[in-house]
Amino acid sequence: MAAGTLYTYPENWRAFKAQIAAQYSGARLKVATSPPAFTFGQTNRTPAFLSNFPLGKVPAYQGDDGFCLFESNAIAHFLSNDALRGATPQAAAQVLQWVSFADSEIIPPASAWVFPTLGIMQFNKQATEQAKEDVKRALTVLNQHLNTRTFLVGERVSLADITVVCSMLWLYKQVLEPSFRQPYPNVTRWFVTCVNQPQFKAVLGEVKLCEKMAQFDAKKFAEMQPKKETPAKKEKGGKEAAKPQEKKEKKKEEKKPAPEEEMDDCDAVLAAEPKAKDPFAHLPKRANCWVCRPCVGR
């Protein structure tokens, strides 16, 4: 039976997969989310941590025997038992199918839609609308599959259910309001069934479904952004240092002759040409030269 430590930050839905799997398999798992065991942004940047987990990402797992793993799906798979992974080659392949489905079809649009509502990503209307359509497509596939099934693979909870539920957790908590989820009753029934299993509740606690779709909060987003420090420039010589600058500005002003009459860009180009007899002098004079305008950047 596996035994080790999972390094992560609090409420990391990716880490939840491994934690729930351990609840089912009986793996002995310690979760390090706070000092002194682990400080996100500090511990994961130390040479000791990076020697085991080169990317410095979490969740990261270190067994009591020194065995190390990164990537949440690999960790969850390792901490599972045969029943969760799929007892037959066919079942195991189906579990892998839904794990991949979560990664490719749910997580990208869920992130694009949910992250702005949490203040961790800038809002983009076009991206959000596309994400909603992609989520609908994924929900349609799940709803059809679950029409005659209680769980995704077989008759019991598997790693497929654990992975897909965790990938949809923030969707159901933040944006899938009743009117949006109404066309997908099988998905909601399955989701509620899973999150109310004792092993899920031990990790997730009570999961409340969204009542009103969360929206982007510009103020919250601004507060979440790191503040940029702008160090004040040190002036050498105080007031004396400003004098040379003032002199330069005065010289620049003196060099600028005040034009008697403002010339547009086209006239300025023509004025620079050597004077010659105008072969079209007998024709009516035009106010502006539209041909020259592209040449002078207008």
TrEMBL record:
Domain of life: Eukaryota
InterPro entries in the record: EF-GSTs, Glutathione-S-Trfase_C-like, Glutathione-S-Trfase_C_sf, Glutathione_S-Trfase, Glutathione_S-Trfase_N, GST_C, Thioredoxin-like_sf
Pfam families noted in UniProt: GST_C, GST_N
Domain GST C-terminal, first and last residues per copy: 88-216
Chain positions covered by the region annotation Disordered: 222-269
GO biological process annotation, one example: translational elongation
SUPFAM superfamilies from the UniProt entry: GST C-terminal domain-like (SSF47616), Thioredoxin-like (SSF52833)
Domain GST N-terminal intervals: 2-87
CDD domains: GST_C_EF1Bgamma_like (cd03181), GST_N_EF1Bgamma (cd03044)
Cellular-component GO terms for this entry: cytoplasm; nucleus
Record's compositionally biased regions (Basic and acidic residues): 222-259
Family, per entry: Belongs to the GST superfamily.
PANTHER family in the record: ELONGATION FACTOR 1-GAMMA (PTHR43986)
Protein name (database record): Eukaryotic translation elongation factor 1 gamma
Organism: Lates calcarifer
